[in-house]
Structure formats: structure tokens, C-alpha cells
Design goal:
By secondary structure, the protein is an alpha/beta fold. Helix 2 (38-44) crosses helix 4 (67-100).
């Protein structure tokens, strides 16, 4: 804090004083990360290890004289970068535009008069006036209040508005939901409570699950490439095939095994997922978050607005015996009228709005129209109640509504079956116990009392000797679809953890009504977490499902503990107090109506707060993961098999089995149809649970299916050498055709865990594969291509033999995939 605010006269600061302070202390603005420059966003697309590896491969291809291959690889890298850049740039600009739509102002008293100024121009010491509907523009110490209540949920997580009194504080980012007041600015900008929370975003966000696994996969790929390249180079050189030719051949193999289309496949697939999510009113700020969302197995969220509607509803209106009583509802509504049958204001406090919105109000509408309000005493912090003096016909009554215990303290009688009876100690204790039971059920309880009144003005001692008529019971109810949505999350294998800033009692009640199990009713509080050591804290984070009264730091620590145990954690939050946890999660999810800090920390923005939208986003993420995995399994196993065969056959063949240009063309043509795999259909079984990158499983798949491919390659080699005694050009052409077509064909076995004929491929994948396969068979018949790549025309018997080899390979892969996928979870 920057010292105390200067003493302010009743007229507030002068314009000169405000200008001087503004020049010294700066604008009242929370520092936030501005939109990243376009250049920085673009450069970030080239930071992936896989992209850097492809740039190296392109450079090597260029040095080897393979200009076409080098150009193709660089084009793929650039396309990938441009697509990712466009998505992220648009997301950044969209958020900046949303922020720019609102230029907040505030009413301050300066030079003795009330004036409206930009909120950014407020300085410490300004006298600020606030009323219903205002956003508090800075941290204030209240000087005066009139029935003032403030919603601080975005800062504290507390769902109940807080009543304020002179001398208490209100904070930047909170909202006035009732009454009015004035206060002196204590802190502005970065020094406010909200500003200090924003500073947490300065630290780099931890890498998400997808980014971590891409790095691991890139490292694995580099090791495989280096090992294979070194082996082929050394063996061929030792066998006397020339050091330089052996080097060129080994480098061509390295290029051949590199899945150069992978970045484009990833970007296109993620972009498709992001577009589908956008149609469901979900904005993805970072493309990689699409797949991270699909891999989420634990979703952490608050209850308010997620499980609940986010606004109070009238739950009941009961007499002192707990029986529903329409007269209690009538008096509750009367206390909030300004004229016959009309609400006192369009806004009102949350409980008044809930009463006027209750369907049951229709029961008393006719009687309500007969009441006239003569006077009222507004709510204040000390009394914790409000009063309305009303007349119906010839009868004048004082109706009092407020905190149940405060109303009870002013009562001397209670309404019984036959009329008022004395409120003796046993009855008072029984009523106090009833109030406690209601509160333990998570209900907010307001007492309603009344008495006949002589006169037309409420005096200092009027609110006494009351008769308790009953209680109004309020609840922020669960959303109508929350049980079904949580059940859907369960079917998707996603666990839910509630991290609430609200009380344990309310949190337990809402969780129970929403279908979230709370074993033994155990809700762990922030106070209990604060007493735990590091290991016990981690254990609690994993074993407990519901937390209440947790601080922003505890939310962030809980998310970090869940991640450290190997889970992929998402966090849904929209308040300032949620920013640290959003920052720490694999996927931070906020809502468009949330605070700017929350949206800045998030990876995904919901245009409406809905678990259903998240569930659908998870499904899209899993589709994305499944299609990317299809490409990786297909390409890396086929490339490994083909290149292993080339490497092995080079040991006993008197010539290099495939020319470098043929290897690169093979790799390119077999990859082209796989670009469309982003649009492929995904089996429902692959959407049922979160799936993680299993680098070990991918490696075993590469070896097993690569060796299977090599077996059929060797069968082809045997036929070419032993049966037809082919020349080197014929051998290379036949092997080129078989190798390229085998990778295209086996896609339709690998793409599904089911029998291939029971899983319909996407139209784009099917037709592009047919076109690529036809092109591979046709290339040797094109004279220009035949001359450039050293192809020859193949005899019909050899073409028929290639078709048989391809069919046998496909059926073998189809048979082998079942036991393999059952053992390895990839």
C-alpha cells in the first residue's frame, strides 16, 4: 500500500489536486498483458522442436540437390505456421475488442460538485459515489452508505452479497447490487486487490499436456533418426559403397522417416476442432488447448454459476412451525414495493428480486395490490433488517424483514395456530435451532415479522415488540441440466472437483443436489488445508472431491498438485480469485462475462457458462487427438518399415535399393491423403475416456508394424530378385509403387480399433487415398516423371504381384491390430 489517502474535504479533491496525483501515481488501470504483437505470435509458431527438426531436414534436402522436397517441407512448415498464427491472432484481437467495448466511468465529487470522469482518471483521495448496478472503480473506504450491499463473488467466491457499513472497504471489480454509498479511494490500479492478483499472470504458464508430449515425441523421433542414419551410413561405407554415396543415402533415409506433414496435420486438425467448438460458442485462444481439453481427466470448478444458476431463487416461505404459509410470502413481497403491486426498483437486492420472480407470487397478487406503502426504514449493517409501513384498507402494519436472528431478537411473540403467543425461552430456543437447521441445509434465511401500527412514520423504537410470522428461504438452485451434464462428464471419464470460496454448508448442499458425491459429507475447508504439510496437501488434493472457503493461492496449489500426480487438469473460473488456478491448469477455461484477468489467464473462453459446452469441447478434443494419433501411428510405422527394409536390403544388394529422390517422392505422395485425416470420422469407443500420448507405446507400434511392413517388402524383394531377376531400375520402380501404396492402404486398418468394414472412413480421406494410390501406379507411365525419377514401365505380372502383396499386408495388419491395441493404451 502506498501510504494513507490524504484528508478530503466534503467537496472532494480539486481538479488541480487530482491532476497532480494522476501525474505522480499514474492511471487507475490494472496492468495486463496487452495483445501480443503479430510478429511475436508468428515467431512462436517456429519454436516447436518438431518444426525446427523439419527446417533442418529441408536444409539438408536443399544441400543434396532435392529442391522439390526441400520446397515441399518448407511450404508445409510455413502453412502450419500461418494457420496457427491466424487462429491465435484472431483470438487475441477478439479479446482486445471485447475489452475495448467498455470504457468505464465513475461519479466523483470534485470542486464541490459531482462529475463523471473516466475510471482510469480516478486518484487516491477521490470521493467516489456508487449506487445499484455500478462496478466499484477502485479500492474504497466507505464514508456513507444507504442499504448498500456488494457482490464480491469475483474476488472472494462468496455467493452471498455482502452488506456494507461506513468504514468498511469495497474493492475494484466488485458490483453494487443494492443501495448506494460513497467512499474515499484508498488504492488504485496495480495497488488494488485486483491489481495484485493480476501480477500473478506475469509468470510464464506451465506447458500443457499436449506441448509436453510433442517435445517428448520430437526427442524420441530425433533419437530414432540419428540411430538409423548412423547405422546405415557406417555399414554401407564399410561395405565399400563409397563414403559420400553412403552419406547421401543415409541422409535420404533420415528425411524419409521424418513425418514432415505432422505439423500441418496437427494444425489443421486442431483448427477444425476449434472451428467446431466456435459453433458451440466456445472460443479457443491457443490451438493446442483443443487437444489438451480432450485429454482432461479432472475438471476443477467453482459451484456458483457452474452447478448453480448463479442467482438466488425463493426456495420456500414457511410459518414458525415450518409449514408453507402464503401470508409470509405476501409480507415478504410487501416489504419491497414502492407502489401498489409494483417492485420498489428494477434492480433491488438479490432476495427482493427472487421474491418478485417467484412463480408462487401469483397466489398473493390480488392481496398485494391492496397494500399502500406509507414509509420505510432501509436496511443498514447494524440493524441487519429493513421495515415497511403499509396500509391495507383500514389496517396499518409495520412489516420487518431481515437476518433471521436479528428479526427474532426484536420479537416478543410468535404466530401460533390460533394467533400470536408469547415468545418464551423454550420457543425462542426452538426457533433458533430451526434457523440453524435451515442454514445447515445451505439455505439463506430471512425472518418476517409484523405488528399493528398507529401512525404514518417509522420511528427509532418502532422495530420492537414484533410478532414473528415466519421465514423466507432462499437458495442459488442447481441448473436444471446439471445432473445430466455431470453424468455425461462421468461417462467421458472426467472427474469433477469443486473448489469453492463459499461456505462448507452451502457447498455440501449444492453438491448433493447436483449429484456430486460427498463421501460422509466431508468437505475440506481452506483453513484445514492451511494446516497440512506438502505431502498431506497432495494427498488431500487427490482424495477429496469438494473444497470450500479456499483462497486463490490454495486453488492454484490444488490444481498444481493434481497435475503433479499425472492428471490433465482443467480449471473453470471467471473471477479475479480464479486467475492463479486458471494460469496453473493444463487448460484454463473462463467465460465471456468473467473478469478481464480471468479471461487473460484462460486458454478457452465460453460465451456462456455451461458444463455442457465443456463436455462437447472435450469430445472435440478427443476427436482431434484420435486423428492426430492415426497419422502418427500410420506414418512412423510405415516410414520405419520402409526405411528399415531399404537399410537392410542395401547390405546385400549390389545397388542402392531406392534413389534419394525416389525416397522423398514416396514420402510425399503417401502423406498427401493423410492431410485429410483431420476430417476423418472417429469411433465412439475412442471418445469414451481420456487418452494420453504413450511414447513407449508409439515406439513399440513403430517397431511391430514397421517390421510387419518390412516382411512384405522382403517378400516383394524375393520375388523381384528370384523370380523375375529384375534390373535395378525395375526393382526400384516396383518397390516404390509397393511402398507408397502400402502406407496409403494400411491407413484404413490402423484408423479404427474395430474391423475396418465396420468403421466408415471420412469421404475426404477415402477419395484422396484412392486418388493418391492411382497416381502412384500411374507415375511410371508418364514419360517426363519416368525420366526425372529414373522409373521404368512395370510388366503386368509384377503389377499383379504388388497387388497381392498389398492385400496380404493389409489383412495381416488388420489381424495384428486387435491384440496390439488391447494391450497398449494408445
Amino acid at each position: 500500500m502506498r501510504g494513507s489517502s490524504p484528508a478530503i474535504p466534503d467537496g472532494g479533491l480539486t481538479s488541480d489536486e487530482a491532476a497532480r496525483l494522476l501525474a505522480v501515481e499514474g492511471p487507475n488501470a490494472v496492468a495486463r498483458r496487452g495483445a501480443r504483437p503479430a510478429g511475436r505470435i508468428l515467431l512462436a509458431q517456429f519454436s516447436s522442436p518438431l518444426v525446427l527438426l523439419l527446417i533442418v531436414v529441408a536444409a539438408v534436402s536443399h544441400l543434396l540437390g532435392e529442391q522439390i522436397e526441400a520446397t515441399v517441407i518448407l511450404a508445409i512448415v510455413v502453412l502450419n505456421a500461418v494457420l496457427a498464427f491466424v487462429q491465435e491472432y484472431r483470438a487475441e484481437r477478439a479479446l482486445v475488442a471485447i475489452q475495448g467495448l467498455v470504457r468505464p466511468t465513475a461519479r466523483v465529487r470534485r470542486n464541490g460538485a459531482v462529475t463523471i470522469v473516466p475510471a482510469a482518471d480516478i486518484v487516491r483521495g477521490d470521493l467516489v459515489l456508487i449506487e445499484l448496478g455500478d462496478l466499484v472503480p477502485a479500492d474504497l473506504v466507505l464514508a456513507s452508505v444507504e442499504e448498500l450491499s456488494v457482490d464480491e463473488a469475483s474476488l472472494t467466491g462468496e455467493s452471498v452479497p455482502v452488506a456494507k457499513e461506513p468504514g468498511s472497504q469495497v474493492y475494484l471489480g466488485s458490483t453494487v447490487v443494492g443501495g448506494s454509498g460513497s467512499g474515499v479511494v484508498r488504492e488504485t490500479g496495480a495497488a488494488t486487490l485486483l491489481g495484485r492478483s493480476a501480477s500473478l499472470l506475469a509468470e510464464p504458464a506451465p506447458l500443457g499436456d499436449f506441448e509436453r508430449n510433442i517435445r517428448r515425441f520430437s526427442d524420441f523421433l530425433v533419437r530414432v533418426i540419428l540411430a538409423l542414419t548412423a547405422f546405415v551410413f557406417l555399414v554401407n561405407a564399410v561395405l565399400g559403397k563409397g563414403w559420400f554415396d553412403s552419406f547421401l543415402f543415409a541422409v535420404a533415409l533420415a528425411v524419409g522417416i521424418t513425418p514432415e506433414v505432422l505439423p500441418a496435420i496437427i494444425t489443421i486438425t486442431l483448427a477444425n476442432g476449434a472451428l467446431r467448438m466456435a459453433r458451440d460458442r466456445v472460443v479457443v485462444k491457443r490451438l493446442v488447448s483443443v487437444e489438451d481439453l480432450g485429454n482432461v481427466d479432472i475438471l476443477c470448478c467453482d459451484k456458483t454459476g457452474t452447478l448453480t444458476v448463479g442467482e438466488f431463487a425463493l426456495h420456500g416461505f414457511v410459518n414458525p412451525d415450518g409449514v408453507e404459509d402464503r401470508r409470509v410470502l405476501l409480507y415478504g413481497a410487501v416489504s419491497a414495493v414502492s407502489e401498489r403491486g409494483r417492485p420498489r426498483s428494477e434492480g433491488g437486492n438479490p432476495t427482493d428480486r427472487a421474491v418478485w420472480a417467484a412463480p408462487a407470487l401469483e397466489q398473493v397478487t390480488a392481496e398485494l395490490n391492496g397494500f399502500e406503502v406509507l414509509d420505510r426504514a432501509p436496511f443498514d449493517f447494524h440493524r441487519r433488517l429493513s421495515s415497511a409501513l403499509v396500509r391495507a384498507g383500514e389496517e396499518t402494519s409495520l412489516v420487518v424483514k431481515g437476518a433471521a436472528e436479528s428479526v427474532l431478537d426484536r420479537c416478543t411473540a410468535v404466530l401460533g395456530t390460533d394467533g400470536p403467543v408469547s415468545l418464551d425461552p423454550p420457543r425462542r430456543r426452538a426457533l433458533t435451532s430451526a434457523i440453524e437447521r435451515y442454514e445447515e441445509e445451505g439455505l439463506r434465511v430471512l425472518g418476517i415479522a409484523a405488528r399493528p401500527f398507529a401512525g404514518d412514520r417509522i420511528g427509532a423504537g418502532s422495530e420492537s415488540e414484533l410478532c414473528l410470522r415466519g421465514f423466507l428461504l432462499f437458495l442459488d438452485p442447481p441448473k436444471s441440466d446439471v445432473v445430466a451434464t455431470l453424468a455425461e462428464m462421468g461417462r467421458l471419464g472426467v472427474g469433477i472437483k469443486i473448489l469453492s470460496g463459499d461456505s462448507a454448508v452451502v457447498t455440501r448442499r449444492i453438491c448433493g443436489e447436483s449429484g456430486i458425491e460427498v463421501p460422509g459429507g466431508r468437505v475440506m475447508t481452506g483453513a484445514e488445508l492451511a494446516l497440512l504439510g506438502e505431502e498431506d496437501f497432495r494427498r488431500a488434493a487427490l482424495e477429496c472431491g469438494v473444497f470450500a472457503r479456499v483462497t486463490p493461492e490454495q486453488k492454484s496449489a490444488l490444481v498444481a498438485a493434481i497435475r503433479s500426480a499425472g492428471h490433465v487438469a482443467a480449471f473453470l473460473g471467471d473471477g479475479v480469485n480464479d486467475a492463479p488456478a486458471l494460469h496453473a491448469a493444463d487448460v484454463g477455461i473462463s467465460v465471456n462475462s468473467g473478469t478481464d484477468i480471468a479471461k487473460e489467464a484462460a486458454d478457452v473462453i465460453l460465451l456462456e457458462k455451461s458444463l455442457g459446452a465443456i463436455a462437447r469441447g472435450i469430445v472435440e478434443g478427443r476427436k482431434t487427438f484420435a486423428n492426430i494419433t492415426k497419422y502418427i501411428l500410420n506414418t512412423i510405422s510405415a516410414n520405419f518399415g520402409n526405411m528399415s527394409t531399404v537399410a537392410l536390403s542395401s547390405l546385400f544388394l549390389p545397388f542402392i535399393p531406392l534413389l534419394p529422390s525416389q525416397i522423398l517422392l514416396n514420402n510425399f505422395l503417401s502423406d498427401v491423403p493423410l492431410i485429410t485425416i483431420a476430417t476423418d470420422r472417429v469411433d465412439p469407443s475412442l471418445l469414451e475416456r481420456p487418452r494420453r500420448w504413450n511414447i513407449g507405446g508409439i515406439g513399440r507400434f513403430m517397431v511391430v508394424f514397421g517390421l510387419l511392413s518390412a516382411v512384405f517388402d522382403l517378400l516383394l524383394i524375393g520375388g523381384l530378385l528370384r523370380v523375375w531377376h529384375t534390373s535395378a531400375p525395375t526393382f526400384r520402380t516396383a518397390w516404390f509403387v509397393e511402398s507408397a501404396c502400402s502406407e496409403i492402404l494400411v491407413t484404413f486398418a490402423i484408423r479404427t480399433r474395430r474391423p475396418f468394414f465396420r468403421s466408415r472412413a471420412g469421404a475426404a480421406l477415402l477419395w484422396s487415398s484412392l486418388a493418391a494410390g492411382a497416381l502412384v501406379f500411374a507415375l511410371p507411365f508418364v514419360s517426363t516423371v519416368r525420366g526425372y525419377f529414373s522409373f521404368v514401365l512395370l510388366p503386368v505380372p509384377i503389377l499383379g504381384f504388388i497387388v497381392l502383396i498389398l492385400l496380404a499386408y493389409f489383412l495381416s495388419a488388420e489381424a495384428l491390430k486387435r491384440p496390439f491395441f488391447e494391450r497398449l493404451r494408445i
